[in-house]
Amino acid sequence: AQSVTQPDIHITVSEGASLELRCNYSYGATPYLFWYVQSPGQGLQLLLKYFSGDTLVQGIKGFEAEFKRSQSSFNLRKPSVHWSDAAEYFCAADSGGGADGLTFGKGTHLIIQP
Amino acid sequence: NAGVTQTPKFRVLKTGQSMTLLCAQDMNHEYMYWYRQDPGMGLRLIHYSVGEGTTAKGEVPDGYNVSRLKKQNFLLGLESAAPSQTSVYFCASGVTTGVSNQPQHFGDGTRLSIL
After folding, report:
1. pLDDT tens track for A71-108
2. CB contact under 8 A, A45 and B108
3. How far apart are CA B106 and CA B108, in angstroms?
């Protein structure tokens, strides 16, 4: 079955430190991959997406993600986090070819320490 | 503000009651989706629509019905509410990018409690 796994339920990072959130996928073929962010009480906002080509994808708010086919991973990174980055982050995948939405990971809750 | 608007934002129901959640988007998007979000579960697709007058089942459709009579609106109905339907419901919309049809804009959610 197709699935998206985010191994870390919670991650705590000091403000100004670097961040990496992990995402692994299990699909028959390489899916299209996405990262969303959800602030408390809000809907989801698309950070970035990978369809093909360059394996390093730039997104909004200073985030980037690297697709690694050999590891079936699509990890999200940021060089220096800000207190406003505290939120829930979701990795998602789309097998393509239809409009049946996305398969989401269970999310990683990011806590920023002052 | 342009985007996806959900009403109501909060609702408490008794078991067995029915209700309809409304989603409206003003971006002329073709695709619309209803998800539910439960703690530790991420988002799961309930139903979706690829255009006016069309609907399809997602991953967890049981106990829900939907309608898309107008392109800008997507309604989610609970026929007989059950405590297991206590959740936060998100509506989303999007257009095809020619590669993927993923939702691109989300509403702020409807928090629904079933007693």
Report:
1. 999 999 999 999 999 999 999 998 765 556 788 999 99
2. no
3. 7
Using alpha carbons, select from B35, B51, B31 the residue that is nearest to residue B88: B35
Tokens encoding B115: 């007693």
pLDDT of residue B88: 95
Nearest chain B residue to A31 by CA distance is B100
How near does any CA of chain A get to the CA of B23, in Å? Answer: 13
**Do strands A32-38 and A44-50 pair parallel, antiparallel, or not at all (unpaired)?**
antiparallel
pLDDT at res. A81: 97
Residue type, A87: A
Kindly report, residue by residue over B10-62, the tens digit of the pLDDT: 999 999 999 999 999 999 999 999 999 998 888 899 999 989 999 999 889 99
Out of B4, B43, B107, name the one closest to residue A104 (CB): B43
Does the CB of A44 have a partner CB in chain B at under 8 Å?
Answer: yes
CA A41, CA B41: separation in Å to the nearest integer? 17
Distance from CA of A82 to the nearest CA of B (A): 23
Closest CA to B74 of B35, B38, B101: B35
